[in-house]
Structures are given as structure tokens and as C-alpha cells.
Design goal:
The chain is of the alpha+beta class. The chain has three domains: 96 residues, no CATH class; 126 residues, Jelly Rolls; 72 residues, Phage tail protein beta-alpha-beta fold, CATH 3.55.50.30. 27% of the residues lie in helices and 32% in strands. The strands form three sheets. Strands 1, 2, 3, 4, 5, 6, 7, 8, 9, 10, 11, 12 and 13 form a 13-stranded mixed β-sheet that branches. It has a three-stranded mixed β-sheet with strand order 15-18-17, covered by helices on one side. Strand 17 and strand 18 form a beta hairpin.
Length: 318
């Protein structure tokens, strides 16, 4: 896309709607020609069409979905058209299936799990308490000698019952977070883990490196297969606010805020302009109103929100 061209947000909305229709399985040759002609009305139309195609390509699709692409409307190399009688729900269903398998896969063999937007408290046999955040899955394996928790995905806050004879160990991304009588949070996102301690002491082991020791008010990150990172101070009031149904941000970059909000929303959040990523955000968000969180962003930040099935666009405010 030519970056010198002004991009009208209304044209971008129109382009997205037209492109979704072209992927619906209900589009005719006349519809494809109409989109092609629409995209040539002006440089702004062309830029909007190209942006819409880029956003569509950002959707996580299965190999099957990728094999069924709409014919290129802007004079690019012809692509294979959708076959069969699939409606728009079919294309979105494939995306939903991809997302669903990714998020629900670990839950198939986990002892405890939560869906998107769900939070749950569980009580373990030893008297420990665990709070599961949105989209979390874990298994419990207690024996006479050990108390092991395997976190497959998501975030969990642990209040550990004291038992000096049986260490309490959380396994996440090939690392271990070990505690005896403490309260701490483990947040697993892909290969990245963040550990925060609100009471007591924990020990973090990863990649065979010397263990890192954390005390109250401290945290660290580690990457799967890598040594623990540097210990840093954490804002405990903000760190466990999700347990109370809130998210608290104090001058945090918009990119990080969106990454956290995405945990509680269906589908994906997509920031269309990276120059906004460093925009600082402060505020308190209510987790029981996930769409309201986005509305608050739109009211307090220079962004506008476009909601599509399984995709929410965050764009500069026009």
C-alpha cells in the first residue's frame, strides 16, 4: 500500500464488508467485478481494498481455508475461487475451528479449564486454592512426595497450603515455579511465562540455569528453553486485579493493553497502525463487560473500533 495516500476509514469499512461478502460463497462474478471496479474509483479506494485484503490475510485460517481464496480484485495474479455452496458462516467456521482447536486443545486433557471470558476458583485436595483466569487450562498431579501442577495455557493465581514435606511445583513452558506456603501468579502465553509473587517466596527454574528466587512484590519472565530473566518489581494491586473482576493499567503501552484485553474477548484484536503501539493507557476496566472495555478505549484513546466476526480492528481515529 502506498503510505502517502490518505486512507478514509469509511472506505476501509466498505472494503472490509465487500471482501467478507466475496469470501462468503454467495458472491457472483458480477460481485467480484463490482469490487474490482470499486477499488479503481480512486487511489483511496484502491488503498482501502488493499488494506482489507491484508487484514483478511491476517486471520488465522486453516490450510483448507487458504486454498479457497477469492479472485484478486485489483489486477493481481488470479486466485482460486471458493468452491461449493459454503456460506459466510463456513469461512468463519473454519477460522473459529482453528482458534477453537488452538485454545481448547489443552483443555481436552486438562483437569480444570476456563473458556474465554470465564474465571473460576478451585479448591485442591491439600487445601490450596487456585483462581483460573480466562482461557486457562491446567492439570493436578498430587502424590505422597510432591504436589505438581501443569499449566498448559493461560493464567492462574495460587494460594498454597503449607506442607514442608511436599513441594508445590507449577510446570509451565518446560520451566518450574516452586513454592512452599505462598501466593503467586503464573501467566503462560505461548512460550513466554511471567511469574509474580504476592506472598512468601518462590523459586523459578528454567533451561538448567541457576534458579531465580522471588519474594513478595517481585516478578520475572522466562522464555521456554531459556534462563529466567531479571527480577523486577511488580504492582501487586494491578497484577491480581483480574481475580476481583478488574484490569488496572497505569501508563502502559497500548500494545500491551490490547494483548491483555484480547484474553477476555472472542477472536483476535488487530492493531492496524504500529505507531499507536506505544500510546500510554491508564484506567480501570471491568472484566464482566468485555465489549465495554473496547468502548472505553475508543472514548479515551485516539482509536476507533471495528468489530468483525472473530476479528476486532483497532484503528487510528479519523
Amino acid at each position: 500500500m502506498n503510505e502517502s495516500l490518505p486512507l478514509d476509514s469509511d472506505l476501509e469499512d466498505q472494503a472490509i464488508e465487500r471482501l467478507v461478502h466475496l469470501h462468503s460463497g454467495r458472491a457472483s462474478a458480477a460481485d467480484r467485478l463490482a469490487f474490482h471496479n470499486w477499488s479503481r474509483l480512486s487511489p483511496a479506494h484502491r488503498a482501502a481494498a488493499q488494506t482489507a485484503q491484508a487484514l483478511w490475510g491476517a486471520l488465522p485460517q486453516t490450510e483448507t481455508a487458504q486454498r479457497h481464496e477469492v479472485a484478486g480484485p485489483i489486477g493481481t495474479r488470479p486466485r482460486r475461487r471458493w468452491r461449493g455452496s459454503a456460506a459466510i458462516a463456513a469461512s468463519l467456521a473454519m477460522i473459529a475451528l482453528t482458534l477453537g482447536l488452538y485454545h481448547q486443545g489443552p483443555a481436552l486433557y486438562a483437569d480444570h479449564s476456563t473458556t474465554t471470558g470465564e474465571r473460576r476458583e478451585i479448591h485442591l485436595a491439600d487445601g490450596s486454592q487456585v483462581w483460573l483466569n480466562s482461557g486457562t487450562a491446567l492439570s493436578v498431579d498430587f502424590s505422597d512426595a510432591r504436589r505438581d501442577i501443569r499449566l498448559y495455557r493461560g493464567e492462574a493465581l495460587f494460594a498454597v497450603a503449607k506442607d514442608s514435606t511436599r513441594p508445590f511445583v507449577v510446570h509451565a513452558a518446560e520451566g518450574e515455579v516452586r513454592a512452599v506456603g505462598t501466593r503467586f501468579d503464573v501467566d503462560l502465553r505461548g512460550r513466554q511465562v511471567e511469574v509474580r509473587v504476592s506472598e512468601g517466596v518462590v523459586q523459578v527454574d528454567s533451561a538448567g540455569a541457576p534458579p531465580a528466587r522471588l519474594t513478595i512484590g517481585q516478578g520475572l519472565h522466562y522464555q521456554q528453553g531459556q534462563a529466567p530473566g531479571a527480577v523486577h518489581e511488580v504492582d501487586l494491586r494491578a497484577a491480581d486485579a483480574w481475580q476481583r473482576g478488574k484490569l488496572i493499567f497505569n501508563r502502559q503501552p497500548l500494545g500491551e493493553v490490547l494483548g491483555e484485553l484480547e484474553r477476555y474477548l472472542p477472536g483476535k484484536l488487530y492493531l492496524t497502525d504500529d505507531t499507536l503501539r506505544a500510546q500510554l493507557v491508564s484506567g480501570v476496566f471491568e472484566l464482566d463487560d468485555p465489549q465495554g472495555m473496547l468502548d472505553t478505549l475508543a472514548q479515551t484513546q485516539p482509536v476507533q473500533i471495528t468489530r468483525l466476526p472473530l476479528l476486532t480492528l483497532v484503528r487510528p481515529k479519523s
